[in-house]
Amino acid sequence: MAYNTQNLVGTGCYERDGGLSGFGREIVAEMNRVGMMCDLSHVGLKTSEEVILESKKPVCYSHCLPLGLKDHPRNKSDEELKFIADHGGFIGVTMFAPFLKNGINSTIEDYVEAIEYIINIVGEDCVGIGTDFTQGHDQAFFDWLTHDKGYARELTQFGKIVNPEGIRTVGEFPNLTEALLRRGWREEKVRKVMGGNWVNILKEVWGE
């Protein structure tokens, strides 16, 4: 709905939050009508809350991490996570290392810890994988991402970007399944988080 800063719909997570605009309410209604999911990953607190309340269909944080493990403007507080879940929304957990507890020194175990942290707040039925993989992109791509609207004022710099050790490429995804099983997860819970929950929530938004 907004990417880090202000737009005509609402406010991103790096701005003072003015909430959902009147135009934004029309956008939410139209997205509901055509079967598009409202994504609040980069959106500010007030705008997020108002989209959650305005939408007639489930909304999501498609790729986020918990503020309780690392203080960062892109991470979501326990209260935000519970609010979206309590209103039928969905949480995709990202493995973007700068937002993880140990930054670029994070491992797949740090990522699993973040997933478990969120599940302990909202339950296992509304949580899934939201990688935010940037595999194969160069520095120019990240320079574009870290500027407002892709070209204007610089918002932030992440430095070196590397995925957590153990899941640095899409090809290492089986390692995540193994890591979840090592934590004692039952197979049904692994299947839900690895994709089943996403399928269920997207059916609600898109229609059967």
Summarize the helices and strands and which ones pair or pack.
Blueprint: H1 22-34, H2 45-54, E1 60-64, H3 78-86, E2 90-93, H4 108-122, E3 127-129, H5 139-145, H6 173-182, H7 187-206
Parallel strand pairs: 1-2, 2-3
Instruction: Tell me, rounded to a whole number, the average pLDDT.
Output: 96
Q: Label the CATH architecture of the largest domain.
A: Alpha-Beta Barrel
The secondary-structure element order is HHEHEHEHHH
Shape: globular
Number of strands: 3
CATH structural class of the largest domain: Alpha Beta
Contiguous helical run count:
7
Termini separation: 24 Å
Strand order of the largest sheet: 1-2-3
The major pleated sheet works out as: 3 strands, parallel
How many domain modules? 2
Q: What share of the residues lie within helices?
A: 40-55%
Q: Are there runs of 5+ residues with pLDDT below 50, and where? A: none
Strand content: 5-15%
Per CATH, what is the topology of the largest domain? Answer: TIM Barrel
SS content category: mainly alpha
**CATH H-tier superfamily of the largest domain:** Metal-dependent hydrolases
Q: Kindly provide the radius of gyration, computed on alpha-carbon positions and rounded to a whole number of angstroms.
A: 17 Å
